[in-house]
Amino acid sequence: MSTAGKVIKCKAAVCLEVKKPFSIVEIEVAPPKAHEVRIKILATGICRTDDHAVSGSLYTPFPTILGHEAAGVVESVGEGVTSVKPGDKVIPLFVPQCGECSSCLHPKANLCSRHSFADVSGMMPEGTSRFTYKGKPLHRFASTSTFTEYTVVHESAVAKIDAAAPPEKVCLIGCGFSTGYGSAIKTAQVEPGSTCAVFGLGGVGLSVVMGCKAAGASRIIGVDINKDKFAKAKELGVTDCVNPKDFDKPIQDVLVEMTKGGADYTFEVIGHTETMAAALAACQMNYGTSVIVGVAPTSSKVSFDPMLLFTGRTWKGSVFGGWKAKEAVPKLVSDFMAKKFTLDPLITHTLPFDKINEGFELLRTGKSIRTVLLF
Ligand code: PAD
Ligand code: ZN
Ligand code: ZN
């Protein structure tokens, strides 16, 4: 029997309060309104950004449904939706693309100005929530909310993908892989023969490594305080592994020495303001480029010597790897299907959705790269 137009009762992992474990509860998901799409989630990855929200480091209103790295199938669509239809396999987009605003129309921009990726209202663009728990509305997160059997997103925040794509793998194209890979090949535009340094070798950092390697970097230095991350990093293209704990001096000094003057490209993929400043200082003073990928705590400030930029370094940031999400995600999925890159090394754990708290523990204890939750 069709569920279109009806309220769906389903299971969701709800965060009732900051710093608390997820509660698996039954919620109600209202039908999509005009220009909205209701999606049955098939698989969702656990990204550090979700954990930043749980810990309160990244502000988001509670109670909430987190999760933003997923693949699913369209259950029903609201009035006026033209780009997807029921039954389509899709990836929800935490960076929406309306296709009509000045940013969406600009070839260099990927952050829509009509539907901001940074919106923290916790509501749909028209101002209300589609999620209800015990009669009260729940907030959404990052335009997506994927830790639930069903979610509703705006049409600008969903992309149709190849029907044959395996959801338990391509869910990573919804965030971690695309962010890291794009930061290297699109935002930094890493050149063949260059030297790169990647700070943080988690799911996103290892995807930066893959991007640097694909772009032809000849030396890729991986920096992490967890030495257990080094074996996989080497497998994916890291040529030198550096643990800041092994040195008495600042890591930027170590890297400048190792590279005889600084790396061509550095990437901060941790989310700490100190390592952002260190990554900037670790790139070559005349022509080095440093890219901030990690999400710093809400309202934090970075302190750095302006001389670092005065001499010629370039400091950039990259949200979702600089991709215009709605048009890039289907292409990235096609590239995956054509075996242009692999996602397997990033997926260290697969768990049933109910074990979401276990999945977060694996991330917090540094034991996982990506855990994919299956519904
Ligand atoms: P992760 O926790 O899997 O990886 C972070 C890595 O950094 C771990 O291996 C840690 O051991 C390592 N680390 C921690 N502290 C230090 C330190 N002081 N020096 C060196 N290494 C350290 O996270 P992830 O890969 O899922 O995400 C990484 C960051 O990227 C995180 O801040 C997340 O919020 C952000 C992110 N940004 C975007 C975007 O669009 N820019 C998208 C997705 C994630
Ligand atoms: Zn993410
Ligand atoms: Zn737009």
Any idea what the radius of gyration is? 20 Å
- Termini separation comes to 20 Å
The name of the CATH architecture of the domain at 177-321 is 3-Layer(aba) Sandwich
The CATH class of the domain at 177-321 is identified as Alpha Beta
What's the average pLDDT?
98
Compile the SSE list and pairings:
Layout: E1 8-14, E2 23-29, E3 36-45, H1 48-55, E4 69-77, E5 89-92, H2 102-105, E6 131-133, E7 136-137, E8 150-154, E9 158-160, H3 167-170, H4 176-188, E10 195-199, H5 203-214, E11 219-223, H6 230-235, E12 240-242, H7 251-258, E13 265-268, H8 273-281, E14 289-292, H9 307-310, E15 314-317, H10 325-337, E16 347-352, H11 356-364, E17 370-374
Parallel strand pairs: 10-11, 10-13, 11-12, 13-14, 14-15, 16-17
Antiparallel strand pairs: 1-2, 2-6, 3-4, 3-8, 3-17, 4-5, 5-9, 6-7
Bound molecules: 5-beta-D-ribofuranosylpicolinamide adenine-dinucleotide and zinc ion (2 copies).
Structure commentary:
The mean pLDDT is 98. Helix content is 24%, strand content 23%. The chain is an alpha/beta fold. Among the domains are: 177-321, NAD(P)-binding Rossmann-like Domain (Rossmann fold); 343-375, no CATH class. The protein has 11 helices and 17 strands. The strands form 3 sheets. Strands 3, 4, 5, 8, 9, 16 and 17 form a 7-stranded mixed β-sheet that branches. Strands 12-11-10-13-14-15 form a 6-stranded parallel β-sheet, sandwiched between helices. Bound molecules: 5-beta-D-ribofuranosylpicolinamide adenine-dinucleotide and zinc ion (2 copies). 5-beta-D-ribofuranosylpicolinamide adenine-dinucleotide binds at residues 47-49, 52, 175-176, 179, 199-205, 223-226, 229, 244, 269-272, 275, 293-295, 318-320, 366.
